[in-house]
Amino acid sequence: GVGLSVQVAAWRAGGAAGLVLTKNTITGNKRLGIDWNFDGVTANDTGDLDAYLQNFPTISSAKTDGATVTLTGTLNSTASSTFTIEFFASPACDPSGYGEGQRYLGSATVTSDGSGTATFNVSLPGRVATGQFATATATEATAGTSEFSACVAFTL
Fold first, then answer.
1. In angstroms, rounded to a whole number, what is the distance separating the alpha carbons of residues 117 and 102?
2. Which of 5, 23, 26, 58 lies 20 to 30 angstroms, CA to CA, from 96?
3. In the 3-class helix/strand/coil scheme, how is 7-43 assigned residue by residue?
4. pTM
5. Distance, CA of 36 to CA of 147 (rounded, Å)
6. How many Å separate Cα 16 from the centre of its chain?
7. In a 3-state reduction of DSSP, which class is residue 46?
8. Contact between 52 and 16 (Cβ < 8 Å)
9. Is residue 24 within 8 Å of 33, Cβ to Cβ?
10. Per-residue pLDDT tens for 16-60?
11. 101 by DSSP, 3-state: which?
């Protein structure tokens, strides 16, 4: 909810954290919406080799026509794996340039190729004004949910 920030030590003895956050409203706080290591934005790593810190998606385009939003981008993570990408809209971006998620817009399921790359081009019903910001998270069953992606402004 408003003022909520999720901060959890991601590594636990014996394996991956696997913490799943889904369809939440995380906004209006003084920190990152999701910060798994208490250290600010955790950079993605090619192939997601750390395994216990799920990479976040990269949104390349966020468009709105007043009734539908279309989001395109990529996720680089573990090879040949299935992920749920969840999309959010917020009127403002966190000062870090990475997101919060005031309003859940919907999700898409993607599968990465042998190099760990998955692409998405998703249209979802929903009214979002230009100038608001899109963010996304990625969730994989064993690695859990990523931090929020960088913010991308919705355009026509």
1. 27
2. 23
3. ECCCCECCECCCCCCCCCCEECCCCCCEECCCCCCCC
4. 0.88
5. 7
6. 19
7. helix
8. yes
9. no
10. 456 777 777 777 777 788 888 888 899 999 999 886 789 999 999
11. strand
